[in-house]
Amino acid sequence: MNHSTVLPLAVLPVALGLLLASGHVGAQTVSSPPAPLSQAELSRLVQQQALQIQQLEARLRAVEGGRGTSGAAVATQAPALDTRIAALESSQAKAPKVTWSKGAPEFSSADGSVVFRPRGRLFVDASSTDGSSVSDRNISGTEIRSVRLGAEGRYGILGWAVEGDFADNAVAWKSVYATVDHRLFGLPADLTVGNRLNDRGIDGSSSTSNTPFQDRNVVGTLMLPQRGLFGVGLTERVYGKDWHASLSVAGNDLNNTGTDNDSQTWATRVHWNPVANDAVTVHLGAWVFHEEIAAGASGVVRSSAIAGHFNDLVKIAPGTLLGAERSTAHGAELAGFFGPAWATGEWGTRNLRGADASGRYDLDHQAWAISAGWFLAGARPAYSGKAGTWGRVKVADPVTRGGAGAWELKGRYEDVDYAELPSGGTGHAWTLGANWYLNDFSRVMFEAIRWKTRNRSGTGQGRDEGTTFNTRLQVAF
């Protein structure tokens, strides 16, 4: 059809109305002819129709964004408008994206292959201890437990993270690594190069931003290599449907001053979820490590801060052990997640071999812990089945949006046995508490710890007991 002959779109309804009106009038003239209109009435009718046409055309221009008044002009402008809309949609599809779903702005390319996100955390603690027979242990105070800032990102299969921490009046590097995603035996896997948290136990492999208690259990904090929780090296992880396995070799963490040899640690961990559904998840796990300890290395055995981080005087002391050459450790994990409830159990033992002034030795020490919790409302336990670790709790009704947040009740028992070491002590602790999750990124933690120690060295030798109350405000993103 030739567009120049098309009636203006806005005129069509009017013309149709006139035709229908004329047909109706014509039908009426057969039976009863109407009275003829005067010249003035005809003039008014034409003016009204002209005004209606103008109004309809104006509305049409506003809708279509065009300037023409004819149907031909509108038809001509329609393809141009479609082209402009398509160009705009294409431009928007290629634009970078920003999301706040993880508590900080995450910037990504349109196809998601390039990602950058800042991350950090703030722990503000308060603590008070009473009841100890050693008066120096009955102290109260506050501390900034941790201020951590860093960033993480991705370039396709290459990921990275850099993070520093201010704690204990010192600054230390924590996560500093790169990962390469690949496939191993047809399964998804990643290779980490750098300084990364150990893969060892549920608590030991999880960030303290996610663990239910203010500090990891004694298995996570004590059954570890001389190098500690981090170490610079290589870690290969492979992931199945309901399991994962890791193998790593690493030296000391990157805060080593470089004035002595690194210790060398080989470690492996596996976890399996024999049951994994919305109602119930069961976790089974095991880990092993072996280390060759550098001559003169310090911190081969660590004391247990059984009453929380602030009070450095309430500890289970391992005593002094010199000349350690190597150690081997292993542990087991069991956990269950049942709707709003959860329970975990961990056990670990470590064997130390070496020689001191009295001769060669072969000594063991061990620790174990059981814990449980229950969400009253507003959230469920957060468990990552991919790596067998604690995840971030998702709050259904955040306080920051006018809601009540989520409340969790929790309890834990821990036991440490250094008795086989030359001057090592023993002890245990009961912890009861609650967590109030304000939103996905912040919580307030309350804990009451009833502890007992039997030390043969250090502060508070002999039997001692007391009660410590700890609180924390946490923000982590």
List the main descriptive attributes of the protein structure presented here.
single chain, 477 residues, alpha+beta, 16-stranded antiparallel beta barrel, 4 helices, 20 strands
What report would you give on this structure?
The protein is an alpha+beta fold and 477 residues long. The protein contains four helices and 20 strands. The chain has helices at 11-31, 39-64, 71-94, 218-222, and strands at 97-99, 106-108, 114-130, 140-155, 158-167, 170-184, 187-197, 230-239, 243-250, 264-276, 280-292, 324-338, 341-356, 359-377, 383-384, 389-390, 406-417, 426-439, 442-455, 462-476. The strands form two sheets. Strands 3-4-5-6-7-8-9-10-11-12-13-14-17-18-19-20 form a 16-stranded antiparallel barrel. Strand 13 (341-356) and strand 14 (359-377) form a beta hairpin. The longest helix is centred in the N-terminal third of the chain and has 26 residues, at 39-64. Mean pLDDT is 88; it is low at 1-33. Residues 1-27 form the signal peptide. This is OprO/OprP family phosphate-selective porin. Keywords: Signal. Pfam families: Porin_O_P (PF07396). InterPro entries: Porin_dom_sf, Porin_O/P.
Structural class: alpha+beta
Note the total helix count. 4
Strand content: over 45%
Total beta strands: 20
What is the rounded distance between the termini?
63 Å
Order of helices and strands: HHHEEEEEEEHEEEEEEEEEEEEE
Can you tell me the residue ranges where pLDDT is under 50 for at least 5 consecutive residues? 1-33
Q: Average pLDDT value? A: 88
Major sheet characteristics: 16 strands, antiparallel, barrel
Question: What is the alpha-carbon Rg in Å?
Answer: 36 Å
**Major sheet: order of its strands?**
3-4-5-6-7-8-9-10-11-12-13-14-17-18-19-20
From the spread of the alpha carbons, the general shape counts as: elongated
What's the helical proportion of residues? 10-25%
Signal peptide: 1-27
Keywords: Signal
Organism: Stenotrophomonas geniculata
Protein name: OprO/OprP family phosphate-selective porin
